[in-house]
Amino acid sequence: MEYKKLNILLLEDSVEDAELAIYELNRAGLDNDAVTVNNLKSFRENLYDFLPHVVISDYHLPSCTALDAFDVLGDIDIPFIIVSRLVGEETAVEALKKGVTDYVSKDHLSRLPLVIERALNEAKALRHRKTVEHELIQSKERLELALEGTNLGVWDLDFMSNTIVYNSRSLSILGLPPEEGIQAFNYFQGYENVERERLKQEMDEHVAGRSAIFDQEFSIRNDDAETAKWVLVRGKVIRRAPDGTPLRASGTLMDITEKKVNEEKLKKNQAILENAEAVAHIGSFEWMPRSGRFIYSDGFAEIFELKNKPELSVRELYRDRIHSQDRPYLREVLFNGKGFYDIEHRIKTPNDDDVRILRNSGNIKYNNKGNIVSIMGIVQDITEQREISKSIFNAQQYERSRMARDIHDGIGQMLVATKFKISSLETDHSEIMEAKKEEIEDLMATTLEEVRRVSRNMSNRHLEEFGLKKTMEYLVEQIQYVGDFVVTHYIDIPDDYNMELSNAIYRIAQEATNNIIKYAHASNVSIKVESTNQNIILEVTDDGVGFDTENNWNGIKNMKERTSLQNGHFEISSSVGKGTVIKSWFPLNT
């Protein structure tokens, strides 16, 4: 039996009779847990709580009969065995007709274990038969659904009579009337002779055993149809004579017109995409690290000049094309656990003197272990855009410097002269006039200082005179003076950077610290500038209120643009209540 331990529910008002029944079961080696009840209420409760494998019931009880208890079972499929002394033959037959499993006299309790075992085996066989029948019905339903869902037609070919039989769906696909379901085989119907010759050749190849399956597509064009219908035919020889002569073949037909139309649309869209990539200098790619598969478009190959290296691996691409100064940053971006990235970096073409600037953005998918499954993205050559932006930016900087000189040398000198003129004025020495003269002198001094400050901020004069390191130290002194926070700094750089790079680093630090002063409400601010073998890194950190970086404010845009113009990489990390980290990497021209 399939049970390690039987749950037996006894409906019996005689404790002695119940004990005798259990004794016989134990003596026969049937390991069991038994619960004895003497009324229908307790019987019903234990039926659902105890979940018996077998029910044993006396026929006559003070409040009910065994048939009353059997009615309680309803649709529950449990062997029900009556054990009683005072049951006549007619009563026993009636009980068996109602569905009671068996009857055992209390005078022959030694039969009880055998009856139970037989009943359990019969119940098991019945369950198995019902399971098989259910699975057979399900299989048939699945087959019917599969044929209906796939819209498959079926055909059967008799080589001896050269007769083919089509089902109704096959006739519909081929455009044949219902009465032509059985006809002479002519390598399928409804198409040009050229198609028939090709199908005949392929069928002969399969019949000769040179192909495992017959699998071909062909088109049908009826006289009244504007476009052709495409059909996929598949099949194989399923019976041969002892000498190998084919006797019978079977297979399927499928209308694949929609698939063919979509393929044609896909080809057109692919051509449009390739043209768009060429015009916009864009390429697309997909990399699956676990399999090593790397797919890329023609636009990607053109940007990286891979025409002569179609099998180039990602490792080779990284080593031979990505600029050495940008590799650490690219690794950090791609393997930081984020699902999306949008960065700029440089590549080297086979001619090492030619450096291109790319915008690289894409989506990264991970498995449940956090490993990268695929990276799918696009790259765009923005070298020309960057050169134009740089030219515009340099022109703006030149104009700022010119305006700063005009303010300093023009308006500033006039204010100085005015201040001296006012100082030289004679007054009547009255206290009122002397006080007014001093007020005007103070106002002129304040105005002159503000003009000088504006001039310094607009020009690079401080950088030109003192270099980046001292200018950064001066910036730290300024914010320590005006800011209500503790400033720590680490500035470990030489002063021999070119003016464009120095100005970018200083302006980004200035923009970041001004934002901290205005909005951050920070207690601690850290400014770090340090150089490595290939990069100079600026990092400004605060523990202020933070903000949502999705808000692409002008200050962030300006810092990002200044970094990009130096072929650098900009990152900002912030969240509400957790402070802000601004970090820029700048490559050193070595």
Automatic annotation (TrEMBL):
The modification 4-aspartylphosphate is found at residue 58. It comes from the Bacteria. Keywords: ATP-binding, Kinase, Nucleotide-binding, Phosphoprotein, Transferase, Two-component regulatory system. PROSITE patterns: PAC, PAS, RESPONSE_REGULATORY. InterPro entries: CheY-like_superfamily (IPR011006), HATPase_C_sf (IPR036890), HATPase_dom (IPR003594), PAC (IPR001610), PAS (IPR000014), PAS-assoc_C (IPR000700), PAS-like_dom_sf (IPR035965), PAS_fold_3 (IPR013655). Residues 7-121 form the Response regulatory domain. SUPFAM superfamilies: ATPase domain of HSP90 chaperone/DNA topoisomerase II/histidine kinase, CheY-like, PYP-like sensor domain (PAS domain). Residues 214-268, 341-394 form the PAC domain. It is an enzyme of class 2 (transferase). Its EC number is 2.7.13.3. It catalyses: ATP + protein L-histidine = ADP + protein N-phospho-L-histidine. Residues 139-210 form the PAS domain. PANTHER family: NITRATE/NITRITE SENSOR PROTEIN NARX-RELATED, NITRATE_NITRITE SENSOR PROTEIN NARQ. This is histidine kinase.
